[in-house]
Predict the 3D structure of the following.
Amino acid sequence: QVQLVESGGGLVQAGGSLKLSCAASGRTFSSYVMGWFRQAPGKEREFVAAITWSGGATYYADSAKGRFTISRDNAQNTVDLQMSSLKPEDTGVYYCGNRLGVVSLPFLLLRESTYNYWGQGTQVTVSS
């Protein structure tokens, strides 16, 4: 079992910045990758960014490239998502997900079904 707790959400004006954090505990030694997804009202959950625990390889959705940065702290078992130049369309509940075991094909990291564990989510609201 892996427990994930997100924090750092809030209300911010368009153009502003926020940093989300996800703290992992439990069976983290088997973890391969941590991902951030978001879900806007009435929409499906969508991929935002992911990072592998060992090599630190990063992956971003096109909407996040150049604005968001994902990073990890292996010693603290935390993964951060630094978001800047925020837009109203970035509004939603942000979830972190954790995958146990290697994923051989990078495109699978963009799929919600790849992840085994999820946090409870943190709300991000960007006002125009």
